[in-house]
Design brief:
Elements lengths: L9 H7 L5 H21 L2 H10 L7 H29 L2 H14 L10 H10 L2 H16 L6 H26 L4 H23 L4 H6 L3 H17 L25 H4 L4 H32 L4 H25 L5 H21 L3 H28 L6 H21 L1 H5 L6 H22 L8 H4 L2
Helix pairs in contact: 2-5, 2-7, 2-8, 2-9, 3-4, 3-13, 4-5, 4-6, 4-7, 4-17, 5-7, 5-9, 7-16, 7-17, 8-9, 8-14, 8-16, 13-16, 13-17, 13-19, 14-16, 15-16, 15-19, 16-17
Length: about 450
């Protein structure tokens, strides 16, 4: 076989002509189930343990909790995003996902035994390296393995599975926290290491787009041929021919990260995404998650009430994902982001105005739909906004720097939570700069992405 000497987009063209079969669904569901268990078992574990284990047993106070939560959702994920983006770019999407899964399982179980604040700080950073890894790779990988006609449908439907994972995780928390909270952590670790890691090892191929972009043409041909055979076996008609001209890649392979800030194609969208991620992570993603359970407890909620409410919220989010996927690209991704941000803000405004526990629970359910749709659509928006050669670097610089917002924002939430009537300082923070601002920025400053060829929209 003759080695190609340029990044010509042949692999992209062959992927973009593939019809939707069970093969793409299997890959997408496996990756998103992995995302779900890593995130919901590991990311911000302090938010589960503080109200029901750490606070009642006087292990740490609210300020120390804010520090731990900020380190988990900020510095730990920031380091994980940069480390795994480097691995995903230099060594492949597949090893980055495998390593993220391994780290997610290995670093969560020590929380079952450590009660010293200093060691909890160290673990807070280490435990979320895997979180950063799966955040940096899941949308990138799946975007590269699907065609533009089905990409939004596959991404959003499979990402909806994460909501069902969250239902299961929170039902386990409902059953075991606080009575058997250590068992909850051990089971979480076992699922990631003993079940998901072997499945990924045997069933997850490398991205042919990435292989081609890095000059590994023979390996790309081998992986692509297997992928095509699997799709053909699941499809009744012959596969359509590829269109290499449509997927021709503009620019050389292996672009530098500086291109994100110097290229007129990417500079504006890079700075926009950095600002949007900064405020969203500080508000409607982690800012609300840091104190939502505490807020319900302060209004009379028990551990069972809180975890059951969270489980119901994720069941509702699953329906939200299916509705979003049903509309597909008929609604621009930036418009979905705007609607989701406004929905979140309205829900928490009502929760503050009517501080009845049942109303708060209902508003939490609605707000979780807003948070989930905003987060995953922003993942997908970020992944699709850049070409293969710099996609991992772009995720590291935009989503990665965004976790500085989580770090700084969540650190400040301890005092803000105590500020004003009925925790008004926290409410205003998550609503205005944490939801409405990023929603408006992406709505009026974002690019169109509906049904666009991946290597065209990103160049």
């Amino acid at each position: 076989m003759v080695e190609r000497t340029s990044y010509d987009g042949v692999m992209a063209a062959r992927i973009d002509r593939l019809p939707l079969t069970r093969v793409q669904w299997q890959l997408a569901i496996l990756v998103e189930v992995t995302w779900g268990f890593i995130i919901f078992d590991t990311d911000g574990i302090g938010a589960r343990l503080y109200p029901f284990v750490w606070r009642p047993n006087h292990i740490i106070d609210v300020v120390q909790y804010a520090v731990i939560q900020a380190l988990q959702v900020g510095l730990g994920i920031l380091l994980g995003v940069y480390l795994m983006s480097y691995i995903a770019d230099r060594h492949g999407r597949r090893p980055a996902i495998l390593l993220a899964t391994l780290l997610g399982g290995l670093c969560i179980w020590p929380f079952a035994y450590v009660t010293d604040f200093a060691w909890m700080v160290v673990l807070s950073i280490l435990s979320t390296l895997g979180v950063g890894g799966i955040v940096a790779t899941h949308s990138t990988y799946l975007s590269e393995m699907t065609s533009p006609q089905v990409r939004n449908r596959v991404l959003l439907t499979s990402q909806g599975i994460t909501a069902l994972v969250a239902v299961g995780v929170n039902l386990l928390a409902f059953a075991w926290i606080p009575s058997n909270w250590q068992l909850f952590l051990w089971v979480s670790a076992a699922v990631e290491i003993a079940i998901l890691l072997p499945l990924l090892w045997w069933h997850l191929p490398e991205s042919p787009r990435w292989l081609e972009a890095h000059g590994r043409h023979q390996e790309a041909e081998r992986v692509m041929a297997i992928y095509e055979r699997r799709c053909q076996a699941a499809w009744v008609e012959p596969l359509p021919p590829p269109n290499p001209i449509l997927d021709r890649v503009v620019g050389a392979a292996g672009g530098s990260w500086t291109e994100l800030f110097t290229s007129p194609h990417y500079r504006g969208r890079t700075w926009l995404l950095i600002v949007v991620w900064l405020f969203a992570y500080a508000g409607l993603v982690y800012g609300v998650g840091a104190f939502a359970a505490v807020f319900m407890v302060d209004h009379g909620g028990s551990a069972h009430f809180v975890f059951l409410t969270i489980a119901v919220a994720y069941a509702a989010l699953f329906i939200g994902f299916l509705v979003n996927a049903r509309f597909g690209d008929r609604i621009e991704r930036r418009d979905v982001l705007f609607i989701a941000g406004v929905l979140f803000a309205v829900a928490w405004l009502v929760a503050w105005l009517v501080p009845d526990l049942s109303v708060i629970a209902a508003c939490y359910v609605v707000s979780r739909i807003g948070t989930g749709l905003f987060l995953f659509n922003l993942y997908n928006y970020t992944a699709v906004a850049y070409p293969t050669r710099i996609r991992s670097k772009a995720f590291a610089w935009t989503d990665g720097l965004g976790h500085l917002g989580a770090w700084a924002g969540v650190t400040s939430l301890g005092p803000l939570y105590a500020l004003g009537p009925n925790h008004l300082g926290w409410i205003l923070w998550i609503i205005i700069p944490g939801a409405l601002l990023p929603a408006a920025l992406i709505k009026f400053g974002g690019i169109r992405q509906a049904q666009a060829v991946l290597e065209q929209i990103s160049t």
